[in-house]
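for the writeup, i need someone to sanity check this before i put it in the appendix. the sequnce is what the collaborator sent (i think, or maybe the updated version? ugh). structure was predicted straight from it, no edits. if anything looks off just tell me and ill rerun, i have time this weekend
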Amino acid sequence: MAASLFKWLIFLTHPLYITVTEINHNPKDKTLEISCKMFTNDFEAVLEKQAHAKVDLSDVKNKAATDKLIADYIQRHLLLKLDGRAAVLHFVGSEKEADGTWSYFQVNDIPTVKRIDVSNSLLYDNFNQEINIMHASAGGVKKSTRLDYPAAAAVFEF
């Protein structure tokens, strides 16, 4: 009993650094839809480092400025190649929910996708225990992978 209680207490005191990135091909709209979820406090810490100023993702008065920080940061740390061509991620928006923040991007004019090469170093600049979980779907097939710091490269083939 004491041993299992000790393991539980260690788990509670050990910080968990996880991001989740979902990449979905929408053949009807010919787009690639990307969403990233990060713990808000971790994301704010990274953005503060980048901005050299306090960042509060809950502050609706500064939403335009924080959205620009979010877009700039993610576009530097999440790079995609679709069938060998570099993709341009267009920022769609962000929203805060509970203790997480979602960020949304889109890549236009993608009728089909056979291969997605990903470089994902989200939050690696602050947390060397970061785990980036990624899910990708195209052509009715869903694949997932996990990147543990410092690994940043993944390939999804459909």
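The mean pLDDT is 92. The chain has three helices and ten strands.
thx in advance!!
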